[in-house]
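Standup notes
- HV: blocked on the assembly model, inputs below
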Amino acid sequence: MENWIKSQGRNDDLVLSSRIRLARNLNKIPFPHKMDEEGGKKLIKDVENAFYTSSHTEDKFKTIRLWENGFIDNEVFFDKHLISKNLLDNTSKAAFIVDENETVSIMINEEDHIRIQGITSGLDLEEVQDLCGKIDNLLEEKLDYAFDENLGYLTTCPTNIGTGLRASVMIHLPSLTITNKMNGVLNAVTQVGMTVRGLYGEGSKARGNIYQVSNQITLGLSEEEIISNLKAVVSQIINEENLSRENLIRKYKYETEDRIYRALGILKSAVLLNPDECLKLLSDVRLGVEMGIIKDVSKVVLNNLLVDTQNAVIQQLYDKKLSSKERDLSRAKLIRERLVEK
Amino acid sequence: MENWIKSQGRNDDLVLSSRIRLARNLNKIPFPHKMDEEGGKKLIKDVENAFYTSSHTEDKFKTIRLWENGFIDNEVFFDKHLISKNLLDNTSKAAFIVDENETVSIMINEEDHIRIQGITSGLDLEEVQDLCGKIDNLLEEKLDYAFDENLGYLTTCPTNIGTGLRASVMIHLPSLTITNKMNGVLNAVTQVGMTVRGLYGEGSKARGNIYQVSNQITLGLSEEEIISNLKAVVSQIINEENLSRENLIRKYKYETEDRIYRALGILKSAVLLNPDECLKLLSDVRLGVEMGIIKDVSKVVLNNLLVDTQNAVIQQLYDKKLSSKERDLSRAKLIRERLVEK
């Protein structure tokens, strides 16, 4: 698997990453929100004992205990999509196991006891599912999963019962957004049991025209069916976005180029940049790269900026707590350095 | 005298140019709007005969007859501030005599029979007045000026009677404009018999934050008094603008730098630029140069762009009639070339 942030990929690929997560719980142990810190930390030990059973996992993975970290460092893991908001909320008894390449994370004491997550670059759900399944099997050898013959895996929230699987694909859809077609896409997607969320999951806005399309239903379908349905929906959305882009360039060639080049010009020269404007401009530049209009900016630089310009990462990079205005200043400086001196 | 467009001047000088014009009419000849083409062309001959009397004037000056030119070429003379809207309106019987350096123009059959105009760079009204006076004397030797012992020079419009002199200074006042203080300045200036106009004189908007301050009163004051009053008012306005800039950079350092650098970034990268936005951005960049924030753009480049991005000049440079969108495209291209390849 490839770390999506560090992946160059194909320039015309609209998919940033493919993610699988499996929700698992242990039998006869209270769900995390009912568990005290002592119980939570014992569970972490149990999961570690089940996981670190070979030199392979011992060498390539490590456990990060959130309560041992500062707030900003934990926020950064969230900004990198390695952990969820729920895990952050349980800092005092939460941990995650992560590989050195930051493509796999096993969250412990999230909403569920265990959440196995894999992310790779581009559209490749099968590879991620394969790896997550292996980790799932490894853990299941030693841990007593809460499983019902009829219902499948039992989870804290009923929406996850069954496979406990959520597959999601992060896609860049600027043209459908600009031309106000995203509402139509959202409605269509909902009708086939899928859901569309923003850059940072449930409840987050689709800032920077980046959307996460994922399955809503986890029960009554096999893992393979969920993944193949999602892939079909994503393919259709990609087609619509590409058609919309062709239309845009045919009808508004100069206006589109203007928008794209100005965005790059502003990113290279601004002194203050707030997060919303930053994501909007990065999206315009990404569109330029994807359409072959901008040739001297790499996707890797854009992926890194997408993460590194988040509030927490900015503060971690400059190693101090910054005011909103200082963050806008540091964000602009970081972007100028990355884009001008590239 | 120095052509204001080609002048580098001091970077911190807010004055672009100083202009003097003298309105003169001939005795017993109808005013231009009452004159037919034949009469108008005869008058042009008479003025030429009076003017071209030495090898000096014959070598360095030439007559341009508007009816011999295309519309765009005549518009370009207007955009360069060499002729007035009124002269353009009389194309079929209007001409002007101009020096090779384009600092002096003698308009014939404008609102008045003769308008002697001199423009130089920076704040130097005396030098211009001196030269205009010499040309006035030269013409007066051969021509019978309409002059009344009590009223002075007689003119078509009563507001010009007396000295027939209008002195005006073109100043860049972005900070007073941004901070909404121009209305106060306008009121104060009007009370001391001065008037403030836009970049292209009477009735034109103050686009690009460039204003022309000039005397309103031509009667009851000597030429010297008019000029020294105007200089006093202009000095005061310059002081206020400079105070306003100091205040701006003290209170809004980063916001001001952001505005300035973004303007340069957009000018260097835009694909489409309409005239209003173009002047606004050029003003922001000029402010940056004047404040020492931008160091690698010269005033000469900015002065040239101020003129060359006008609709007519754009079309002359590309040698064809362009639609509004084609002009926006050509304007942006021209600016990119001048600023990026400088």
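- HV (later): unblocked. Chain B touches chain A at residues 254-255, 257-258, 261-262, 264-266, 268-272, 325, 329, 332 (CB under 8 Å). Chain B has a mean pLDDT of 93.
- Next: hand off to the docking folks.
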